[in-house]
Amino acid sequence: MISEQAVLTRLDNASGLIPWAGNNSASSPTNA
Question: Which pLDDT belongs to residue 21?
Answer without folding.
Answer: 47
